[in-house]
Amino acid sequence: MDVDQLAALDRVVREGSFSRAALALGLGQPAVSARIQALEAKVGGLLFHRGRRIALTALGETFLPFARRALEVLREGVGAAQLAQVGQRGRVRLGVLGSLAGGLGGPALARFLPAHPEVHVWMRSGNHEELLEQLLDGLLDLAVITWPCPEPASSAVGAVLLFREPVPLVVHPRHPLARGEADAAAVAALATPLIRLRWWQSHHPVVTALADRAPRAVELPMEAARQLVASGTGAGFFTRTYVADDLARGDLVEVPVRDLPRLHRDAALVRRVRSDLSPAGAALVEALRAQAAALGLLRPGRPAPEARRRAGRARLRKT
């Protein structure tokens, strides 16, 4: 049983004759008759009463709705496939570091979803290790993780976009450190406590050394740390994207530390090297690129050659 046979059945019923159905299908009448006979052999009985006028048999009337439903499903499938080829339909599973989910991931989806209403996007936030594991297990198509990625995982993933963001010391406006530029000794003495935050794959050595000098240091999750500092207690180094809204409102302020190097956190949008990026995925990459550019996060440099080659191939398929 094939699509041509089902289409012949539908057309004969609509036209009311084999000859008119053959004309509508651009076939000879013997070809249409052969298709109907082959279909009758499959369903196990006659579908039409033949004569001067044709009419469906009881078997034909029973089978016709299912044949039309099958044709409609196939038409929908073809349409969905055509939309998927241009990135207008499909599924993209995205993982984003928790510190970038609000500033980068959310606004990028706000750009992407209105223009791609038929694409199902599933986004999860987490830490580097969780997202990398899910990517390698095939549970994610794309993930924003800290960069560079250590071996052996680095050989299995390729960077599509590279990001860099500052990690300044942040305090409440009424905190003693908020009076202007400070030095490391003042930060260690006045932070009370100094909050250690793991924005990187491991604690940054500069922050670790500073915490070792402080009379009191605590390690907290990022949201608890933000709430603590916003209440006027403690000081910590935060990725700027994570506290951008607080800084813009004046609820938090940055404190330059003159005798410490300026800290930054590198990240990358990555995918598995041996996987193909769908047109919908390529479109989401462009939305992430636009949002990262707006935030000033795009890092100078180019992704690895293999990732560039595959991303370029996906863009060609899209066009």
Short description:
This protein has 319 residues and is α/β, with parallel strands linked by helices.
SSE diagram, text form:
Layout: H1 3-15, H2 18-25, H3 29-43, E1 48-49, E2 55-56, H4 58-85, E3 90-97, H5 98-115, E4 119-126, H6 128-136, E5 142-146, E6 157-166, E7 169-171, H7 184-190, E8 194-196, H8 205-213, E9 217-219, H9 222-230, E10 235-237, H10 244-249, E11 253-255, E12 264-272, H11 279-295, H12 305-318
Parallel strand pairs: 3-4, 3-5, 8-9, 8-10
Antiparallel strand pairs: 1-2, 5-12, 6-12, 7-10, 7-11
Helix pairs in contact: 1-2, 1-3, 1-4, 2-3, 5-11
How does this model look, in words?
The protein has twelve helices and twelve strands. Helix 1 (3-15) packs across helix 2 (18-25), helix 1 (3-15) crosses helix 4 (58-85) and helix 2 (18-25) packs across helix 3 (29-43). Strand 8 (194-196), helix 8 (205-213) and strand 9 (217-219) form a beta-alpha-beta unit. Strands 4-3-5-12-6 form a five-stranded mixed sheet, sandwiched between helices. It is rod-shaped and about 105 Å long. The chain is of the alpha/beta class and 319 residues long. The protein has three domains: 3-85, Winged helix-like DNA-binding domain superfamily/Winged helix DNA-binding domain (Arc Repressor Mutant, subunit A, Orthogonal Bundle), CATH 1.10.10; 90-164 and 265-318, Periplasmic binding protein-like II (D-Maltodextrin-Binding Protein, domain 2); 168-262, D-Maltodextrin-Binding Protein, domain 2. Residues 305-319 have low confidence and may be disordered. It is 48% helix and 18% strand.
